[in-house]
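QA checklist item 7 of 12: single-chain prediction sanity check.
[x] sequence parsed
[x] length recorded as 349
[x] structure emitted
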Amino acid sequence: MNPILVDVLRGSTVESTHSGAFAIVDGDGALVASLGDIQRPIFPRSAIKVLQALPLVESGAADRLQLTDAELAIACASHNGEPEHVATALGMLKKAGLDAGALECGTQWPGRESVLRGMFSRQEQAGPLHNNCSGKHAGFVCVACQLALAGGSDPAEFTRGYIRAEHPLMREVGAALAATTDTDLAKAPVGTDGCSIPTYGIPLRQLALAFARVATGQGLAPERASAARRLRQAVARAPFMVGGTGRFDTDVMALLGERVFCKVGAEGVYCASLPEQGLGVALKIDDGNARGAEVAMAALIEAFVRLGDAERQAMTDFSAPVLKNWNGIEVGGLRAGAALLSLNGSTAQ
């Protein structure tokens, strides 16, 4: 049974808890810290979008299309569907000579109330560009077009069905995931993600290894190490594109820049690269709770990243958020569990 990573307080009393597991690995693959079962395969979902975006750079598509930092960042994103996100994903497709009809991620209404109100006031309908994965899929389409041109195929025709596991594009994406995690995907549990591409069950330790490699380039071919670094730097320069207003990923990376690359995945998953420390992090909250995953990730950042006084104070908003009721009265909060708190202040390099 996995340990408690996060407590939920009502007043000063623990009302609920979130158990889970995490692994922290260095660039050589050595385990630096862990709690819970880190060998059980879990579906990382959207937490691995930076790994899935590696072929966008490695294939030459990013250079040929002259993709900007914002466009590379949104290829790694689970965004709010705000107007800037929609415009950026559409811009990528236009550079590839296609439009939103090429996306196979499905239609999704944005979850942020202010965005919805704006759309309703303008009598706009949701489309695939509003899907939180539209940037990732725009990146997929760009790679598929690159593969089509290399093979002498029509890009519009070649991209159809790119979400299927047997499509050449998805085979490229799977190969990048397998290589960075040292995982044989043919033997891994497999399912279908929310955006319709295959998702594979991978242990937390292997996911942490992949993110340590993204942080350091160790264990990667030079071209792949360069691609990982380019994607990390693009996200640091355009963190809004990875999430958006009020999102943990965006806010933490806007605060800490290139020192932290972090990415949420559905069902309580978080992965991160800590380049200064040369570490990769992967965590999973057992009950799939997103706010629990954010608190745990914030606590690990506090423990392993060197922070200034102002930065540490700012991080407490994420590691120990206050809960208020509809009258604005403080009623409790969340905090890292005892096992995570024991890491704080003792391991930052």
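[x] summary fact logged: The chain has one domain: 4-341.
[ ] second reviewer sign-off
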